[in-house]
Design brief:
This protein is of the alpha+beta class. Helix content is about 45%, strand content about 20%. The termini are far apart.
């Protein structure tokens, strides 16, 4: 008996979440996206008859199997799900496709991805389109819906999409679900959550934040290789849960090590009278956590440590969580790459996110090179974990390659200061590949020299600036 493979891809997630720099809207939008995958789909489908048929439901992607006798239920999902999502979250559209198959699910997954790509190229009519004569929300440009209270003594005319985001942010029943994934149930104080971008930097001496985007390596290839085995043993759903749990557990570990330590440092400074701030606020907010995808906003000075801790622990935890499947392809667990965009808190976050995604791709490109040894000693093709970062010091927006050429390449002296991406763990057989331990050792030296009378750091900056100057001047 044949089966139907249903796939849905939520388009415009990042644009929906990062449409503005208002942290309350970002948090509300993030909670809405999480709810689309984890609740709305099940409302339309009336629940999944067999839990093992749910392959994926995270980060805006849904893949689910329907048996032959569930054809009518599938037809209802295809008809109603896009409408429900677009009404619930104006600005988001859904691409969906169905593949019927009798043979291997690995081939069906390939066909489904191709069908979804075709559907993404078809324009969808937004539900909130209005006539030119209608009033507009001045900040976002959408059709004016209502005047609402943003916070104490602050009201604003907003579009429907913004109204829904604030409703979700203020929803006491479902509030902070994404932060629970980040910190763990009961491991944080809701009163300490940052609700404005300025809150991220409370207690800090600067206004820099970082947008971090992390993504797993080679997951698509793994599913192609073991999809049939997982389906035959009814363990596809368990595999997806194992990935999701690995991501959350690794994030919670990084939260305990980095954020809780920052909180202790704040409390010590408070006791010594070194800070004027009375209350601590978590310098981090998650935007996307689902499957092997992670996007967070974090205080700049904590970003590198947090990302490093997460990537290291993700490898370790996924390896342990995959042992139950007893498949050779999963012996080394999963690895991931990340991009970190350092920007001023007033910098448009959708540009910062785009840069973080480009940096993540740059890190992936490096670890996938054929001459770079992969994880394990068993001929595994799992790439190593790595990260790349970039500090935006002007308002000029361009591609990563163009920014590298303009800022990091000193054409006057033909010196290239671009030294990343960095491996998370040192590759013993290729010592010339940059790794995070090497970077941290150099940072420690610079920190020591910052307090010296010789002003070594300022002299180094002067030397670097000279290499950018033409020899004729």
């Amino acid at each position: 008996m044949g089966k139907y493979l249903y796939g849905a891809s939520v388009q415009g997630i990042q644009e929906f979440i990062f449409k503005t720099n208002k942290l309350r809207e970002i948090v509300g939008a993030s909670e809405m996206v999480k709810e689309i995958c984890e609740e709305k789909f099940f409302e339309v489908s009336g629940g999944i008859t067999k839990p093992e048929n749910l392959i994926l439901a995270a980060a805006g992607n849904i893949k689910c199997l329907f048996d032959e006798d569930e054809k009518k239920k599938l037809e209802e999902v295809v008809k109603l799900f896009p409408k429900m999502v677009m009404e619930y979250a104006p600005g988001i559209t859904i691409s969906q496709a169905v593949v019927k198959f009798d043979g291997k699910i690995s081939e069906a997954l390939q066909d489904l991805e191709m069908a979804l790509k075709i559907q993404r190229n078809k324009a969808a009519m937004p539900l909130e389109t209005g006539y030119m004569a209608l009033n507009r929300a001045r900040r976002t440009g959408g059709v004016l819906y209502k005047n609402i209270k943003i916070k104490k003594d602050v009201h604003e005319d907003v579009e429907l999409s913004t109204k829904r985001k604030y409703d979700k942010f203020n929803d006491r029943d479902n509030k902070n679900l994404l932060f629970k994934d980040l910190a763990g149930e009961g491991n944080f104080d809701p009163k300490m959550l940052s609700n404005d971008m300025a809150d991220i930097n409370v207690g800090s001496n600067n206004k820099w934040v970082a947008v971090v985007h992390a993504d797993g390596n080679g997951l698509g290839n793994i599913i192609q290789n073991i999809g049939d085995q997982l389906t035959d043993s009814n363990k596809f759903h368990e595999f997806s849960k194992a990935i999701d749990n690995s991501t959350k557990e690794a994030l919670q570990y990084a939260f305990r090590i980095v954020i809780e330590n920052d909180k202790r440092c704040f409390e010590e400074s408070q006791k010594k009278g070194e800070t004027k701030n009375k209350d601590y606020q978590y310098p981090i907010r998650p935007a996307v956590i689902g499957g092997d995808d992670v996007t967070i906003i974090i205080r700049a000075d904590l970003a590198l440590d947090f990302t490093k801790m997460f990537l290291k622990k993700f490898e370790e935890i996924s390896k342990n969580n995959f042992e139950v499947f007893k498949l050779k392809e999963l012996d080394n667990g999963l690895s991931a790459c990340a991009g970190i965009a350092f920007v001023k808190e007033s910098y448009p976050l959708h540009y910062a996110l785009h840069l973080a995604e480009e940096l993540c791709k740059d890190a992936k490109k490096m670890v996938k090179k054929e001459d770079l040894p992969k994880l394990g000693n068993d001929g595994s093709q799992m790439p190593r974990s790595s990260l790349a970062f970039f500090k935006v010091q002007d308002s000029y927006v361009e591609s990563l390659e163009q920014m590298k050429k303009r800022i990091k390449y000193a054409s006057a002296s033909t010196i290239d200061y671009d030294y990343g991406p960095y491996l998370i763990n040192k590759c013993e057989s290729r010592e010339n590949i940059p790794h995070i331990g090497e970077l941290e050792a150099k940072l420690d030296v610079l920190k020591d020299q910052q307090t010296e009378k010789s002003k070594g750091v300022s002299k180094l900056r002067h030397l670097v600036s000279e290499t950018f100057k033409s020899k004729d001047t």
